[in-house]
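Quick check before the chapter quiz. The format below is the same one you will see on the exam, so make sure you can read both the input and the output lines.
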Amino acid sequence: MTKCKGCGAVLQNTDIKAIGYTPKENSEYCQRCFRLMHYDDLQYSMKTGIDPDEVLSRINEIDGIILWVCDIFDFEASMIEGLNKHLIGRDIIMVVTKRDLLPVTVSNEKMAKFIFSRLKDYGITIKGLIVTGKNIDNKDEILKAINIYKKNNIIVMGKANVGKSTLLNALMKDEVLSVSRYPGTTLDFNEMDIDGFHFIDTPGIEVKNSVVMEVEEKYLKSLIPNRPIKPVIFQIRDDQAFIIDGLMMIKFYDAKNSSVVVYMSNEVKVHRTKAQKANELWDKHLGELFKPVTIDKKYRNITVNKQYDKMDIVMDGLGWICISGDVSKIEIRYPEKVNVKFRKAAI
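Here is the expected output.
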């Protein structure tokens, strides 16, 4: 049984529509991985269909240290609630990737304080934390942390698209594993030896309730940042609204000495208008000026109060908006199937 070096699927050349298909008998990669790596061509989507309970159950059967890879930009969507209950008594090191997407003015100490605070909120305990950039610029630190535990197996796990395969490619110093912006690139457990350690790459756990899962995949290039984000700052007074692509509308009422900072991909478009005009503009331009939209075009509206002096409004898969200063209330329109969370400001 030969597995694809890119995604871990068992290679076969009989069913062109099935996972692992390759037209060449002695190929190292399936056709899907080959086209992803060379042409950024997604032949078919696997963003759903990988059972997270099955992945965690199989991980729990393997003795070893667990590297839990998370995306600092999309941190809330990276969380696995009840993780310690799924993996009872396991040694878990968190590797937080894509640090270089955030402003350089954010210190690693501040970032670590934020991460441990959020882990406490989620009731998750880890043995260690390593923060790294998109290109995994501190490989020696990761290998040193692994070596402390003297385990034969290193299981690399995390939600889809957090950077697991990128991490392993960096440790191998070779582009062996398939890497793409599309969820579900790794399809099965994939094993490799690196510097005397036996690494096991695992399928990305499905990211439920994220924008990434609810828009057409052709829009992911603009929604998922691949270079440092440039925060966009607005000073607001009275009643103001912001329409973010066709994905989110936020209204702030009775703003005084207030500011709004948008932390999202540089290609995401933010439209500012008066709160009283926002609904009319939304209805008129949704799907045209305001796009992308979700596939089902179903949205919900909520009203919240500002909970912290500086509060982040986070949408899984899209980024966040930080509001500071006085506002009487906040109205938010967002996709029905996408999570929106509120937290004390990360930055």
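If your answer matched, good. The longest strand covers residues 248-264.
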